[in-house]
Amino acid sequence: MTTTNQPWRAELRSHALRTAMAKRAAGVPTYSVPEAAALLSVSQEHLYRLIHADAFPAVRMAMSGTQGRYVVPASAVDRLLGETDAGGGRVEVSEWTANYTPAPRSAKEA
């Protein structure tokens, strides 16, 4: 593993953060994994590991047996960060995920 500064990686992360902030402002209900990772200040690799370990909520968008992609509910990111602020302390994401229930959809969304 190289420890050299990789400007392309920083640019990709910056782009993902800008995109996520635009989605947040527009009220888009999901983020891509790179966007969610940028909002959470973790690497997308780390977020993928959490998702694969069922330690962070995500929706796998694929047909049976085919390669797909994950989307992360914006509400999960917002609620996780909100609980960290409200509690004034540390949140263990795997414990939080075990108790995570998506917010009920309003009649307007259904």
Description:
With about 110 residues, the chain is mostly helical. The chain has one domain (about 10-100). The chain is built from 5 helices and 3 strands. A hairpin with a 7-residue loop joins strand 2 (about 60) and strand 3 (about 70-75). The radius of gyration is 15 Å and the shape is globular.
- Could you give the distance between the termini? 47 Å
Strand order of the largest sheet: 1-3-2
Can you tell me the residue ranges where pLDDT is under 50 for at least 5 consecutive residues? none
- Which structural class do you get from the secondary structure elements? mainly alpha
Annotation field: number of helices? 5
Write the H/E string, N to C: HEHHEEHH
How many domains?
1
Strand content: 5-15%
Number of strands: 3
Mean pLDDT: 85
* Integer-rounded radius of gyration: 15 Å
Rough outline: globular
Percent of residues in helices comes to: 40-55%
Largest sheet: 3 strands, antiparallel
